[in-house]
Structures are given as C-alpha cells and as structure tokens.
C-alpha cells in the first residue's frame, strides 16, 4: 500500500514538472514576443491567416523592426500597409519594379500581389518569428471560441498541477516525519531551482529565436488581415489581317492598371509562342508585324510590371493573299447506273459497293484570278457530308486530267485522272467535314497546267457497301458547300 502511494506521489510530481516546463516555455516565448520588442523599440504582429503556411501558421507572431522602406531587396520580408484597404500585410519582396516599387507575394500564393508597395507604405522588416503565442488572438479573430475555451481550461489545469512540482508538501522523496529530504541524484525542484530552470530555458529560447530568423528569411505570412490576389484579365477579340505586314488588333484588358500588352507569335497553332513586341500604353491595341514569308499564329497578353495575364484567343495571319473559292461544278457518277447524270443534285456520292456499285465524286473550282507566277504556299479542299458513312473510310483525291461538264458527266464518260492520289484522308463515321491538301495541284494550275478539278473516290472500291453523301454547290446549307482555300504570294 505504501509503495503504491509512493508511486502515485511520484507520478503527481512528474505531471507537475511537465506542467511547469510548459508554463516556463510559454513564458519564454512571451518574453520574445512582448518584452524583447518593447526593449528594442520593435513591434509584434500576430499572423491571422494561413497564406504563408507551412512556414508560418495562423497564430504565430512576427517581430519586426521599423524601417523607412528604402534599399530593400528581393527576399526581404516586410510588413506594409495594405494598398487595397485597411490593415497590414506581411509578405515577401519578390521583385523590384522599374518604378522602384516593391512587388510582393505570399509564399503560399500562386500569384504576386496585385498592387505594388511603395517605400512609404513599409512599416517594418521581419526579424524574429515566435510560434504559437498569437493563437488566442487568431482564434478570437476567426471566431473559434471552442478552441479558446479548451486552451483556457488547459492553461488553468497546468497552473494548478504545476504546484505539485513546486511545493515541499508534494515532495515524493520526503521521509515520514521530516520536513525536507534532499533528493540526492533524483531531481529535486525548489523555488531556487526553478529560477535556474527559467534562466536555462530563456537561454535556449535565444537560440530558437535567432534560428527562426533564418527560417523566417525563407518564408513569410499574411499579417493582420488576409486579401486575395487579383487576376489580371487577358485582352480579347484578337484578329490578324493578312499581308506582307500582318496587322494584329485586339480589345484592351479590362484592368485599367495594366501597363500594356505583349504580342506573341508561333509558327504552329497552339504555340509554343515567343514574344515579339511589348506595346504601351494599355490603350494602344494594334501592332504591325513584318515576319518572313509564312503563316503565323498570334496571342496577346496584358502585363503589369512582372505580372502577366493568360493568353488571349489565337488569331492567324498570312504574309501573302488568302483566298477562298466555291465550286463552279460538282457531280458524281454511279457504276450501277452508268449513263445517269446527277449534275443538279444537292449531294454527290463517294461509294464503295460490291457488285459494281461504286460511286465517284467530281468537283471543280475557278482559280484563274491567282496571278501567273504566284507561289502557292497552301491549298486545301474541304467537303462536308450530308450523310456520313456507317464506318470510317479512306478517300483519295486525284487531279482530273481531262475536261468534263457538270450536266453531262456519267460513270461511262467520266474523265481520266492522275495515277497517284494528290492526298488521302479518312472520313470518320460522323457528319464531320474532311479536308485534303492540294497545294501541288493548285500550283500546277497557276503555272499553266489545265484545271479540271478533282475526283474523290474510295481508296478500297468494291469492298463493302459504304457511302458518303457530300453536299454540293446546289445544297441549301451554303456554309457547308465545297470549299477551296488558297494562300499565295
């Protein structure tokens, strides 16, 4: 029974000792958060948001020294007046603007702060990070009353149990009948011993406080309020006008504080883009580009100092002339009705059929308006189906070698074609337009070869019963009629 009581007394003393250590540690932190700043003329800022986690959490205290805001460099943690409203912000300088203003960002934030910081807005520079002691303030700010109540109960319990390690009457090593029994090698805490313990912990906290400045130099946090970084809006409605000089126009970003716009160019749709111009002021919304011969793709971005918006819509521009042509003749021939003409039909059929049921489409365009000697950089033929095949098919485009007439062409009198296909493309089993590259043929016509158009036929005729009905120039859907697009110079 006596042994059991002795164990209980020692356990009680141990609990009291840990409570006393916790109170002492808290007091040490409070010394660094309150006493040291007062002694040095510095200030303490309680962090109330998590914008700089994990380096600094809500409830930590930042100790700052006053500063006039001049001569600071990137990486410096500063406390400054919120340019967007009341309160103060603790963020890191990440860049120096050409105007000398500081560009800041919270380490956890993905973007820089929308408003730069001037020297006269700087309140101080971060020197010491004291963890935890601002938690009650943060809880009150956030309305976390349950946390505050629980912390109060734990603090009261710690102060109550700490007496078990301080008062002689709770000494577990005291012999019966004796007032005080030295503990020998065992830990014996008295009021004098506690004074020494506080000094030791204070010295240890100096090391902790000093070391925290290095960690603090790599992180920062939001100050007495939190704010969300703006999103710099991209310009809109970008267009590019063809010519030896390509003119790019756009609608300015809606953010009036933007410095201007940056024009970027690529040789392929979707990029990668390279910046070719920086246009100021924001109200200037045009730029003339004089690149080498070719087709180019442009986007425009808004910028403010080192902050840049996302891409605008993409627009393409060509250094020569871009022309589109509608068909001047289109029809088809049907193998099992070899003498029938379909020159006035609204569809032309390309078909692979068993038992002599193939179908071939013919289409012609007038490109005589392209000056002789021109260089054709691109030419594409596009046909759009009114009825799609039941499965994907490969269709070949062949240059026609002899003349034909839309209203008299039949399977039996169809003209001859070049032995090799100009291009082959897959027509999917859906109502999707298909485009063939026919640059070489159009160049040949410009150079003087007779223009008799193209034949479109199945690459595997006689195999299966699959057909596609393409819309002709007689079709009511004018947007999907046969189309030839040519870029030349």
Task: Please explain how this structure is put together.
The chain has 489 residues and is of the alpha+beta class. The protein folds into three domains: 2-218, Umud Fragment, subunit A; 236-319, Immunoglobulins (Immunoglobulin-like, Sandwich); 323-488, Jelly Rolls (Sandwich), CATH 2.60.120. 21% of the residues lie in helices and 31% in strands. It has helices at residues 2-40, 135-142, 145-162, 191-218, 439-446, and strands at 43-46, 61-66, 77-81, 88-96, 102-105, 122-130, 236-241, 246-251, 260-266, 274-279, 286-289, 295-304, 307-308, 315-318, 321-326, 329-334, 347-352, 359-364, 376-383, 385-387, 393-399, 423-427, 434-437, 454-458, 466-471, 483-488. A six-stranded antiparallel sheet has the order 1-2-6-3-4-5. Strands 9, 10, 12, 13 and 14 form a five-stranded antiparallel sheet that branches. A five-stranded antiparallel sheet has the order 16-18-24-21-22, with no helix packed on it. Strand 4 (88-96) and strand 5 (102-105) form a beta hairpin. Helix 2 runs antiparallel to helix 3 (145-162). The radius of gyration is 41 Å and the shape is elongated. The protein starts with a helix and ends with a strand. Residues 181-229 have low confidence and may be disordered.
